[in-house]
Amino acid sequence: MAIRSSDIKKIINQYMPKQKWIPISDIQALIEAHYKLREADYTPHTITGVTNYPMWKKRIQCTLANLKISGQILHNPANHEYFIQ
């Protein structure tokens, strides 16, 4: 079973630094460090087109987008960074 949004939220809430802008690459590294990714997580995300972008990274982006919509996280699209108060 691939990583779920709820797993990503738990890791972000528990381990992501607060009051600091964090680049997406650091958030991805945080998820990798605190979750044992499985083969299914590395499956290319192909719903929106042919790509080699792994499913686990797409799930992180979708989770962050939902957190942004709900006001739980801020996003700086120019720098690809996120901020939790």
Automatic annotation (TrEMBL):
This is Uncharacterized protein. It comes from Clostridium omnivorum.
